[in-house]
Predict the structure.
Amino acid sequence: MASTPEVSVRAPDDLCFRQVLVDGRRVGKARSLKELLRTLDHAGVEPGCEIHWLGGDIDVWPDQAWLRRGLCFFMAAGLLATAVPLFRIGISDSGSAVTYGGRIAGLTILVVAVVEVLAVVAALDYWGKRRWPYSGVVVLVGVVITLLCSAALLLLQIGERFSIYTVVGMTLGVWSLIALLGLFECGAWRGLRVPRKIAIGVVISTLLAGANLAYAQIYVPWVTTPLIQSGAEFRDSSMEKGAKGVYVTVHLYVKNAGQVPVYILGSIYWIHGVAANNKLDRKPAASELIYDGDFVEPVGRVLNPGEEVAQDEVIEITGTDPHQYEAISARAEVYVIRKDRMKLPSEYVDSRAEGGTLKKVCQEGDLAPAKYRYQSRMSNSSEILNVTRGPQRVTLWRLGGKNPRVIVDVSPPDKRFEYDPQNPHANDAASQRYGLSPVRGAVAEMPYRELLEKASATEKGATPTPAR
């Protein structure tokens, strides 16, 4: 006759498990009578055998399955809610961020997202069989990451629009605080055995590496300012015999002499005739606009460090009276925006509206009279900034009339731009954020009498085509 095995069931532990032993050998653990019977069946113990109950009889099963599973769902849901946007931001920035530092940050966010997924798996183990001794620590790390991410998201939202991500940041912040309290109460950090010296060394090395990367790839590029040079120069002048005007070649240029690439949103130049100043009249000499135009084509092009764009324009100045003007002046101006802080799509080049088309798209409050307008969406330099700042729109107006000029605006698409002449710096905050600035070149000036003398000395040849 086979001997009857000796079955013992110990008292519940802190996880509500009761250890099951057969002949002094551990064969499993159970949280309920049903699990106990299943464990004994797997161990080959026939039903009806005598069981020795240690630390509680057959009715002592303190596990509350519904509460445990509810806590597991609560933790997994919060960790997944953190992992999903992190994956979205990390995948986007690691492949398409404008700067190298932004791509490194995208890869880092991807790694953090993977940790959050591992924390979800650890949560299932921690409130399940708890086979892995470090599952509670991984869950704790995941919750701390959620708290830090929600705090960073809310800090980036300061001064920005209220969006769905603001609600997400607030919700995850509250969730992470509640989760941390629960994890500390159940001692989730137990089971981690890391020597103190190794832990301190890892923390210090990580902080130093992170600080060095942030300084070299994020701080230094951010504080570096573009160095864009623009100007105008008078070149040749000519005239035909008996002509009533003179043709002047003006050399216009813009050069990136710095280390930051920029987009050229638009350009303009002015040719003025400076009237002779009456010595008895102390008022400044008046000037007359002879011609204005733009010289950078196509607009929206990138000007990389060391690159130069130049154009020669031939201007016709009517009148050959040497006393008509005291001097002729030329000045150029370009409008640039930093390429390392935003992305300008190709649709900007094709967005030019003028004439009847411009009248159709203009609304009340828009700038008028305008010769043309460029307008398109633009995105921030990284996905995390797109999340916090939302989509942006850039608009360039080219005004005509007696005072031709260019006005550029960056604002959200749902916010219409209304230029106020009394407050021209109302949008300076957005301009500084994206490095939007006009680059004004020095004024080139030539005495009108000298210009006529050079034109008269030039041999008669083919008449150049004047700018239109």
